[in-house]
């Protein structure tokens, strides 16, 4: 499959409205209709768009890079920050003209924003015909048919089982070398600032055999690097006897075999020594020595870990419900250096200006950067999200100007960033 997606940067004159998204590129196999997808946000969304393209391909859609030629436009959205949602709203308003020129065009919103806003999105954005949450993509063909009959289509049901394990994704952002493989969905962690547990539902792990099968197929097609994706890969846990995470946790000792993330890493590394294996995202509370030992054992597992710290201060970490403190995080870093050596790449995510954070506490975040010497980090100022624990429990009391300085100051720390 040739590359059928390309990166686009929307550069607007307004501060705080820049965004990146990926769009489908042309693939004409003679099908009757054209699908155009724009994917915003994290790698999970890009991976999900590949699943969506695969489902839609089965029902008669080729992909296009030009929304003017599309029968259906889908925006696969992100809710992690207010800015991400504003970007999508602005983009939808730009599609008004396109829809006027082509009244038969159907427009759908997928992903986290669809899940968060549900019917409200249909009420607020009149041009939207479809609202589909991350666990309901199998329903897309029937929802599109509904929209073609002049009705609105909505499905935001969150599943405890859906992993799309049997769907072979159409590789949208492919360079023919690297590919994303989704290994789990959802998140059970409930970090107080995060909307993901509400938009992507409970955590569930995908059958490891379907993952290795996908990795093998990719290798046979010429791919040489796979990234195993999940909100919290270290808590990957699968058993053929029980795949409901909560029930599996309760009867872990009763099932004959449980596959943990370290086991999965090993299985994928063994697909072929020439296949490089990456993974994202790790959680400091869950990354085990066994995972580090497995990384050391296999040369084809890349020596790199994305380990978000979020804050360098223990009080703030507790308020964030990260379930580790500064010392725990630094201990994990020490262990990574011990087992994988000083050359292991480490990157992070950090938030400046979380509720009630003092200047001294912010300085703790800067100091952790000096200690760890991250290879790079994603720096954000705190953006309150409706429905999160932080929104319910804490006051978003740090002025935007202070937060902004904080997140930018992180960028000018003496730590050598490679952004
Ligand atoms: S681990 Fe925390 S920050 Fe990451 S997706 Fe889950 S709740 Fe959100």
TrEMBL record:
A GO term from the CC aspect: cytosol
InterPro entries: Elp3/MiaA/NifB-like_rSAM, Methylthiotransferase, Methylthiotransferase_CS, Methylthiotransferase_N, Methylthiotransferase_N_sf, MiaB_methiolase, rSAM, rSAM_horseshoe
Family annotation (PROSITE patterns): MTTASE_N, MTTASE_RADICAL, RADICAL_SAM
Domain MTTase N-terminal: 33-149
Named cofactor requirement(s): [4Fe-4S] cluster
Keyword annotations from UniProtKB, A to Z: 4Fe-4S, Cytoplasm, Iron, Iron-sulfur, Metal-binding, S-adenosyl-L-methionine, Transferase
Record keyword Transferase present: yes
Domain of life: Bacteria
SMART domains linked to this entry: Elp3
Annotated ranges, domain Radical SAM core: 173-419
Top-level EC class: transferase
Entry EC number(s): 2.8.4.3
One Pfam family it belongs to: UPF0004
MF terms (GO), sorted A to Z: 4 iron, 4 sulfur cluster binding; metal ion binding; tRNA-2-methylthio-N(6)-dimethylallyladenosine(37) synthase activity
Residue runs in coiled coils: none
Name by which UniProt lists this protein: tRNA-2-methylthio-N(6)-dimethylallyladenosine synthase
Source organism: Cyclobacterium qasimii M12-11B
């Amino acid at each position: 499959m040739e590359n059928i997606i390309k990166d686009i940067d929307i550069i607007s004159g307004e501060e705080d409205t820049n965004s990146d998204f990926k769009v489908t590129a042309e693939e004409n196999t003679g099908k009757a209709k054209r699908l155009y997808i724009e994917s915003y946000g994290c790698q999970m969304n890009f991976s999900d768009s590949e699943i969506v393209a695969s489902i839609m391909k089965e029902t008669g859609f080729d992909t296009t890079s030009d929304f003017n030629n599309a029968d259906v436009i889908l925006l696969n959205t992100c809710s992690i920050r207010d800015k991400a949602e504003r970007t999508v709203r602005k983009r939808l308003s730009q599609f008004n003209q396109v829809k006027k020129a082509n009244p038969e065009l159907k427009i759908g919103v997928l992903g986290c924003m669809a899940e968060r806003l549900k019917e409200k999105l249909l009420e607020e954005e009149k041009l939207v015909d479809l609202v589909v949450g991350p666990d309901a993509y199998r329903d897309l063909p029937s929802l599109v048919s509904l929209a073609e009959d002049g009705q609105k289509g909505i499905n935001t049901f969150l599943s405890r089982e859906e992993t799309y394990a049997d769907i072979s994704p159409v590789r949208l952002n492919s360079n023919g070398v690297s590919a994303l493989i989704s290994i789990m969905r959802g998140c059970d962690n409930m970090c107080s600032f995060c909307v993901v547990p509400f938009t992507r539902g409970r955590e569930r792990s995908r059958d490891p055999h379907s993952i290795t099968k996908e990795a093998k197929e990719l290798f046979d097609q010429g791919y040489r690097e796979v990234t195993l994706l999940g909100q919290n890969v270290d808590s990957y846990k699968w058993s053929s006897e029980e795949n409901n995470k909560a029930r599996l946790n309760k009867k872990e000792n009763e099932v004959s075999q449980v596959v943990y993330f370290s086991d999965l890493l090993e299985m994928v590394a063994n697909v072929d020594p020439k296949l490089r294996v990456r993974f994202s995202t790790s959680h400091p509370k869950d990354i085990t020595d066994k995972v580090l030992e497995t990384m050391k054992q296999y040369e084809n597992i890349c020596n790199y870990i994305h380990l978000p710290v979020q804050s360098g201060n223990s009080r703030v970490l507790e308020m964030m419900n990260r379930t580790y403190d500064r010392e725990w995080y630094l201990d994990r870093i020490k262990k990574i250096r011990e087992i994988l050596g000083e050359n292991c790449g480490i990157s992070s995510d950090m938030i400046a200006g979380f509720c009630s954070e003092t200047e001294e506490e912010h300085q703790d975040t800067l100091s952790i950067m000096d200690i760890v010497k991250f290879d790079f980090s994603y720096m954000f100022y705190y953006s309150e999200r409706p429905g999160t624990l932080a929104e319910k429990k804490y006051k978003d009391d740090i002025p935007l100007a202070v937060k902004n300085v904080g997140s930018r100051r992180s960028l000018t720390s003496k730590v050598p960033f490679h952004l």
